[in-house]
């Protein structure tokens, strides 16, 4: 009896210890379960962000790709009817050439593994490759989604050149120039900033979506081409400018709206991420600022043309005013307020209008107004970044603009002159008068107009 009582007493004494051990064990199991759940949530969140980021690139890339149609419609509407089929064909071909060259050499030059000359030249050779499809990339998005998004950007730069030199450039030399621009010239400039090269590391240069890296590159190349090829026959006789109106203003208006639409992908997807609340809020703000810059460019251009041309509002100037506003905000579409975005775009619209007669004064024939829109407003948009982005300086921005201009002008001059003195770049006078639809591709855009 005494032994039984003793065992009960010892058991009662150990009961708190057993209960404590049980509670601790349960707590440990609960803690492990919580940790596992948190880990699973983290993994799922990481995968979700990976998918969201990749979709941002893919959807943004599709939208930017549609800008190729916008350039095509704008240019086809602003050239004379005898050159509309040629201009349409050039735009389809340049997109294909740009895609091929950016895959073969351009991407790896723009985003090199190694650089030389203090980051001025990437030395990663060969075609781009996407790697293992079964794993998540450490970059946080599908590799091919990034390649696709970057590829449609390079086609934009080539489209800028197409419009400026329209109605007198032959198709084969133009496509050769496009190949070199998209394989070498554009990727080298991109590597200086987006590829982490010289401008990024030394000068803290900032160009969010490409006012300089895309638009000014195309604008400088177009300017050099216009000077070397020369103006259209009859455009300038003495000091008199002879207007050569476009054939289809509604088509040009459609092209403007397509480009306006495409710019949401151009700027919005350049946030490069959509997997967090902050990222998607930033994308939304970029959309809003992009739209308001175009609004400012359109309205300021309208008022400027009304003042300069005795109350008349020039439709083509209004269209280019919208595009000028878009180019101006592209270098920094996130940090400005919406009011600042309107002003930045508005100044761009005024600059575009004022630059047109300046080009005519120097007898530089820009058929669609690409130089005022993409070059002049690209410079303006890049410089004004320092006003709203604390990470940029006016000096750094100016160095980026200047270095890009010098390099692209020199490189484009070499290529255009090499083509001029070998296969020739300009069509014959007879072909120009006939129209390049017949002379270059043998197919007219509006055949019934010429049959009487």
TrEMBL record:
Pfam family, one: Ammonium_transp
Alphabetized InterPro entries for the sequence: Ammonium/urea_transptr, Ammonium_transpt_CS, Ammonium_transptr_marine, NH4_transpt_AmtB-like_dom
Regions crossing the membrane: 55-80, 92-111, 147-165, 172-192, 212-229, 249-266, 286-309, 316-335, 341-360, 367-388, 394-419
Domain Ammonium transporter AmtB-like stretches: 57-446
Main location: membrane
Cell compartment(s), UniProt: Membrane
Keywords: Ammonia transport, Membrane, Transmembrane, Transmembrane helix, Transport
Record-linked PROSITE patterns: AMMONIUM_TRANSP (PS01219)
One GO location term (cellular component): membrane
Signal sequence interval, chain numbering: none
Family matches, as Gene3D superfamilies: Ammonium transporter AmtB like domains
One Gene Ontology molecular-function label: ammonium channel activity
Annotated GO biological process: ammonium homeostasis
Membrane topology summary: Multi-pass membrane protein
Membership in a protein family: Belongs to the ammonia transporter channel (TC 1.A.11.2) family.
Name of this protein: Ammonium transporter family protein
């Amino acid at each position: 009896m005494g032994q039984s009582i003793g065992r009960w007493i010892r058991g009662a004494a150990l009961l708190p210890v057993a209960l404590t051990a049980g509670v601790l064990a349960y707590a440990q199991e609960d803690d492990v379960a919580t940790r596992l759940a948190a880990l699973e949530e983290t993994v799922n969140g990481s995968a979700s962000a990976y998918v969201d980021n990749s979709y941002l690139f893919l959807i943004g890339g599709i939208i930017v790709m549609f800008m190729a149609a916008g350039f095509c419609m704008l240019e086809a509407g602003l050239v004379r009817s005898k050159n509309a089929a040629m201009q349409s064909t050039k735009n389809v071909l340049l997109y294909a050439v740009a895609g091929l060259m950016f895959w073969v050499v351009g991407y790896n030059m723009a985003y090199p593994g190694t650089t030389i000359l203090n980051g001025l030249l990437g030395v990663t050779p060969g075609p781009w490759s996407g790697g293992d499809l079964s794993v998540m990339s450490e970059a946080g998005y599908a590799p091919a989604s990034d390649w696709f998004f970057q590829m449609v950007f390079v086609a934009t730069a080539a489209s800028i050149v197409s419009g400026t030199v329209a109605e007198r450039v032959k198709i084969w030399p133009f496509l050769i120039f496009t190949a070199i621009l998209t394989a070498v010239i554009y990727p080298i400039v991109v590597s200086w900033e987006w590829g982490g090269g010289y401008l990024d590391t030394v000068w803290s240069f900032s160009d969010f979506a490409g006012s300089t890296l895309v638009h000014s590159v195309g604008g400088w190349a177009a300017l050099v081409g216009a000077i070397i090829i020369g103006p259209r026959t009859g455009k300038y006789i003495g000091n008199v400018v002879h207007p050569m109106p476009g054939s289809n203003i509604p088509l040009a208006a459609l092209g403007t709206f397509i480009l306006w639409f495409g710019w949401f992908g151009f700027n919005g997807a350049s946030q490069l991420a959509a997997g967090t609340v902050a990222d998607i809020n930033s994308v939304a703000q970029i959309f809003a600022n992009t739209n308001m810059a175009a609004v400012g460019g359109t309205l300021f251009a309208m008022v400027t043309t009304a003042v300069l041309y005795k109350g008349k509002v020039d439709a083509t100037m209004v269209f280019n005013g919208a595009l000028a506003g878009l180019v101006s905000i592209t270098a920094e579409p996130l940090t400005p307020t919406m009011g600042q975005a309107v002003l930045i775009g508005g100044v761009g619209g005024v600059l575009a209008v004022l630059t047109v007669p300046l080009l005519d004064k120097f007898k530089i024939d820009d058929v669609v107004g690409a130089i005022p829109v993409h070059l002049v407003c690209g410079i303006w948009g890049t410089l004004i970044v320092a006003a709203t982005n604390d990470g940029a300086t006016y000096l750094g921005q100016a160095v980026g603009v200047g270095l890009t201009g010098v390099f692209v002008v020199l490189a484009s001059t070499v290529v255009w002159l090499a083509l001029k003195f070998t296969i020739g770049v300009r069509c014959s006078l007879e072909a120009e008068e006939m129209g390049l639809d017949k002379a270059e591709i043998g197919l007219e855009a509006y055949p019934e107009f010429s049959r009487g």
